[in-house]
Write a structure and sequence with these properties.
36% of the residues are buried. It is elongated and about 60 Å long. By secondary structure, the chain is an all-alpha fold. It is 78% helix and 0% strand. Helix 6 (112-138) crosses helix 7 (147-174), helix 7 (147-174) runs antiparallel to helix 10 and helix 7 (147-174) runs parallel beside helix 11 (238-268).
């Protein structure tokens, strides 16, 4: 009796590409404003209009020649976080509770890890497309120092997004009501957006709050993004970069393992 070989992980993930592209074709219009227009409005309002007052006050902005240059990398990193959160909270609950798509998927030869990794692939696609357009919008402002820094900052956005997407996927996989998501957005996402160094140096905070900010993934993402976009390539402190990158990578991988375990329990039970 011959044994049929199990398809590879990559093959099983690829089989779901058509589903996710179909989802995107049907929903992309509803995400245009939040994904592409809102970040540019933030950039104009905060970086250019408010920036005039900040620059005239002589505020110290580490590594930046103007408030626009300081805030733009922070807005980019925060945007990656927000896109990731939007793709793994309500969508995951919908596929488990409302339309039960995940249950249909695992009724086929797809494994739980295949389903999770395909969803993360779609999240990465959403982050890549939205952040790429945001970064193109930054070109006229003269923020970039060189192509290597721009490419490195783009990769950082994917890492930021996945460091949020995987652990909050795990949260969504076990949630029984979407009311908890509103709490997460208000209590987690909004404070991170405001106090993780995107709009002002965290050194302006009281020491306890400064330490709390430095423990958040968005802080590390903002620092990496700002370093690659604003610092000369030859002046980058690669040891510091390695520390920030390791933090985000460990969080993304640990969150992924946790998410697969929690999703498996939900689907099996």
């Amino acid at each position: 009796m011959s044994v049929v070989a199990q398809p590879s992980r990559l093959t099983m993930i690829g089989r779901q590409a058509d589903y996710w592209m179909t989802v995107y074709k049907r929903t992309w219009r509803g995400s245009v404003f939040n994904s592409f227009i809102t970040p540019v409005l933030y950039l104009v309002a905060m970086g250019m209009l408010l920036g005039r007052f900040v620059d005239s006050s002589g505020a110290a902005l580490p590594g930046a020649t103007s408030y626009l240059h300081f805030v733009a990398p922070g807005l980019l990193a925060a945007h990656a976080m927000q896109i990731a959160m939007g793709e793994v909270l309500w969508p995951v609950m919908g596929m488990l509770k409302w339309n039960k798509t995940y249950f249909s998927m695992v009724a086929t030869p797809l494994r739980v890890a295949d389903v999770f990794l395909a969803h993360m692939g779609f999240v990465a696609f959403r982050i890549a497309t939205t952040c790429a357009i945001f970064m193109l919008a930054l070109v006229p402002f003269g923020i970039y120092r060189g192509v290597p820094g721009v490419l490195a900052a783009f990769v950082v956005q994917l890492l930021i997004g996945l460091s949020f997407a995987t652990p909050f996927f795990a949260v969504a996989a076990r949630a029984t009501s979407d009311s908890v998501f509103s709490v997460i957005m208000r209590v987690v996402v909004t404070p991170l957006f405001l106090f993780s160094g995107a709009f002002f140096p965290v050194t302006n905070l009281a020491p306890p709050l400064q330490l709390a900010a430095q423990l958040t993934p968005l802080y590390h993402g903002v620092e990496l993004t700002r370093t690659f976009l604003l610092a000369p390539w030859e002046a980058i402190d690669w040891l510091v970069v390695a520390g920030h990158t390791t933090y985000l990578l460990v969080l993304a991988l640990a969150g992924g393992a946790w998410a697969i375990r929690r999703l498996g329990r939900r689907l099996i039970s």
